[in-house]
Design goal:
The complex is a heterodimer of chains A (280) and B (400).
Chain A (H helix, E strand, L loop, with lengths): L5 H15 L1 H23 L3 H16 L5 H15 L3 H31 L1 H16 L2 H12 L3 H25 L3 H9 L4 H35 L6 H11 L3 H32 L1
Helix pairs in contact in A: 2-5, 2-8, 3-4, 3-12, 4-12, 5-6, 5-8, 5-10, 5-11, 6-8, 7-8, 8-10, 10-11, 10-12, 11-12
Chain B lengths: L5 E12 L3 H9 L4 H8 L2 E12 L3 E5 L6 H8 L7 E6 L2 E2 L5 H11 E4 L11 H5 L1 H5 L4 H14 L15 H14 L4 E5 L7 H18 L2 E6 L2 H7 L2 E6 L2 E6 L1 H6 L4 H7 L4 H4 L2 H4 L6 E3 L4 H11 L3 E5 L5 E6 H10 L15 E2 L4 H10 L4 E4 L5 E5 L1 H9 L6
Parallel strand pairs in B: 3-8, 3-9, 6-7, 7-8, 11-12, 14-15
Antiparallel strand pairs in B: 1-2, 1-4, 4-5, 9-10, 12-13, 15-16
Classes of the chains: A mainly alpha (280), B alpha/beta (400).
Chain lengths: 280, 400
Amino acid sequence: MISIPIGEWFDALINWLKDTFPAFFGAVGTVIDWCISLFETVLSWPHPWVMILVFTGLAWAACGLKKYGLALFSLVGFSLIMGMGLWSHTMHTLALVLASTLLALLIGIPVGIYAGRSEMGERIVRPILDFMQTMPAFVYLIPAVMLFSLGKVPGAIATVIFAMPPCVRLTTLGLRQVPHDVLEASDAFGATPLQQLVKVQLPMALPSILAGVNQTIMLALSMVVIAAMIGAGGLGGQVLRGITQLRIDIGFEGGIAIVILAMYLDRVTHALGSRSARKQ
Amino acid sequence: MSDDQTVIEARGLYKIFGSRVAEAREMVDAGHSRAEILKKTGATTAVVNSSFRIAKRETFVIMGLSGSGKSTLLRLLNRLIEPTYGEILIDGEDISQLGPSALREIRRRKYSMVFQNFGLLPHRDVTENVGFGLEIHNVDESTRRKKSLEAIQVVGLEGYENSPVQSLSGGMQQRVGLARALATDPEILLMDEAFSALDPLIRTQMQDELIELQSRLHKTVVFITHDLDEALKLGDRIVIMKDGIIDQIDTPEGILTNPATEYVATFVENVDRSKVLTAGSVMHRTPALATHKDGPHQAVRTMQHEDLSSLFVVNQNREYVGLVRIDDAIAESKKGGRSLDPILQRDVPTVALSTSLRDMIPLAGSTALPIPVLKEDGVLAGIVTRAALLSALSKESGET
């Protein structure tokens, strides 16, 4: 029987990366840390009631003034979170979700555009996405910890990897769904590749891209809980505490807060997405 | 046509899809069929050795059934599809070797294109769609708006400036497509089955409007269609393609009266000739005439000599004046009259060179006399006898 110690090789690769580019990973870690802290500060600094009103207002604005259901839900939901005493945990989780999503979109949308415009690009990107999506999420945590040590930064890194694929896929899909004759028309009028992208492809792919953003946010939220295992804290930390200490009350409250946050983020981004789709 | 300025010239254009193109070209040049070539080389010969010149202001129709290569040929002209062999000259400049940015420049300056499925941007309203070409050309906002609104007027879409294009009917959407093409004021309009997706009534209407537009704007139009009636109606000249090969390039009348191949002949068999053939094409160009200063005696002699019962009379500029009948002329001559004026019939119906045979049939039914054909300036161009009219129409029944 032959033995292929691929795990050992991967271990060696990670160690080599860590030893060879410490400055690089240090810098990446610092930037991500700074980004998360910025979100945390902005979200935690005002009084919770102020923030609840802001969230409610955002929901109202996203849905249109005649639909106040989501706004009402936000008001009740976030008040409940505050009442459960989970406000700061929730804001930490939200900060991590937002920072990870931002990063995932900054990488994912350009990669999606590349794969959407080039056959070669799609051939390269697709298997990588398959890998990222099917590899159990916990597995990302180990190399992330090795490279960035414990805390929020490796949590964010693992979240980015886990949450990025749908954003890439839906961006690619959106671009490829643009009808051929529309592309031909822009070519026939002498559009440059950049003009074609900005004036034709991206606007027409926008609903699909926004669906990708929505999916990325939802996946980021689900990963953030797992990331608590490597010390990312927040609501995931509460849930983890509930599990390890067999405290149903703590676990359930943490879970409820996550559900409220998830529903809020999903409905708001969905409302924004369907609004842009209606414009078409 | 030949003395007009050539705008587009195609020289030996080939488009062969597949990898073994050289082999495929040899086979197609040797006269092998498409199916044979596909089987042997795996290559598809979409367009084969096409050469033609399109004159300024001409409406040039490329006609063929699906798979005939007509759409490919159109796209070779602005290199949306790259030719495998051959050259394309626009105003004498070879564009087949231009790099991407020079090619874009040519597309911006010379061409516009109208598509079968419109190719509009669903997220924009009518004005923004019409201004798309100008936007690509980096025209500033206010000029863009002004030109867009002008183009919207030209195609008759006033009142819809701010409508979302998705809310418009097919015919209206194609007007947007046409306005977008006209807004950049191109020299050449490429129209790819532009009216094929529209229902028949709207289609006829759009054809009429295109003809009307063309009489004002004088663009060079290359129009693709699979509909022979449309081709005959719109085209100054028509190309008939089959399996990527040009079977015939001719005027509508040339195609009808003188089909070059069996394929073209079967194609035109079912066409209503009376709509396409004109007085100018069936008339007798050198009829016997009397001039205004001839007397009745001279007229009688001419008619007896030519074995005619009537004679058309023209003045010294060959402008049509009227007609005399032989019995009137004999009577006038016996009376000793010296002028044709007293017996001249001026109320004989006349037709123009471009009058279709269909429109002449009622006239021919109401009179036994030949029908005079006049040029625009009133000069007599020729005459159409009943016999000529009937024999031209009888070819319709398939006796070509």
